[in-house]
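pinned: reference chain
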Amino acid sequence: MSGRMREGHQGTGPGAITPDGCAVDVYRRLGVGREPDVIEAAVPAGASLLELGCGAGRVTRPLVDRGFAVTAVDESAEMLAAVRERVPGVETVRSPIESLRLERRFDVVMLASFLVHTAEHAERQALLESCRRHVRDDGCVLIQREGEGWHRQVPREREDPGGCTVRIVSSDPVGDGVNSVLAEYVFPDLRWTQTFLSRPLGAAEFERYLGEAGLAVDAVLTDDGTWVRARPVTG
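pinned: its structure tokens
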């Protein structure tokens, strides 16, 4: 284990497990999908980019390869060690996103991995406020959110480019609009699971929370609505 497990979160399988139930070795192994293409198309070439919740650097590597100046943030020392192995020389910062204060701002801030769907409202607002705190007034924030019907269309599975079958086994209500989600990661040689809490957000709710943090949706970047670009509200 890596730190104290968060309430409602659990991970099983070999190697270090982060407090939100993520297995570090899973994220070392997972492949990269279309995320770098989506990001590259949405932001200026060569932009400075703050990657919040970078994990093991699965997306960090291709972003650096495409010329972005990436600063990678995660609260897990094991995840950041994996980032530095994968992307030698990249700037890494160990910190919870909510309390991050770098005293500088970036062209682009990225909040991926569905972190905006955290169960706690106060935590969500702290995440979004950190995004606003670190983005330039003329910059943008890229946010990954759950797709329509994500919690209803279970069980489901997909094949990851890294050779893993990723299954969302169940999504069960636990009260106050929050679901407990069970995910399974099956490689030919090993298997991991993660249980985590997620709060579904409709479009109006999502935009309201952004507004409370001083952000506004500028564009929906993917046909399934899972990636959006937000801009700071100024004036």
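why pinned: The chain has a mean pLDDT of 96. The first helix runs from residue 24 to 29.
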